[in-house]
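Take a look at the protein record below and tell me what you see:
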Amino acid sequence: MDIKGLFTKIAKYSFTTLLGTVTDTFVLWCLTHFLFGDSHFEQYIVSPCISFECAVFVNYLTAYFYVWKDRINRKKSGVFFGHFWKYNLSCISAFILKMLILNGVAVAFKWDPVICNLVALCFSGILNFSMNEFVIFRKKEGKEPKEQNLQ
């Protein structure tokens, strides 16, 4: 991929991950303020796990239908779920990194879970983009990407 194309993908990815970040942050806020108690386990482990999986689904939809839509062969059956399980596994690895950072920041600075989560998302986002670009939605060798009409 040329440098311009890579920067375009990064810009699209960055823009669309805002939807996932908003989803993650909103769900986390709701869980930590209204549903779960004050224990570290509920606030910093369970709530971020649930909010993360909600964000994964939102991010996958935008990745599949917008960011890497030119690399999807929608004529094959099972493509949506075939990519989703790989995407989810990739996100789980980024999630592990996110949780390590989130809890490290929480222990070190005693910040609110939402702030710790936002700091951690900055680092895990880099891993997520790399996995999407070079593994899950990688460009097939010898094939030029084609814009597919979704209408």
About this structure: Residues 3-136 form one domain. The helical segments are 3-35, 40-67, 79-109, 113-136. Residues 147-151 have pLDDT under 50 and may be disordered. The longest helix spans residues 3-35.
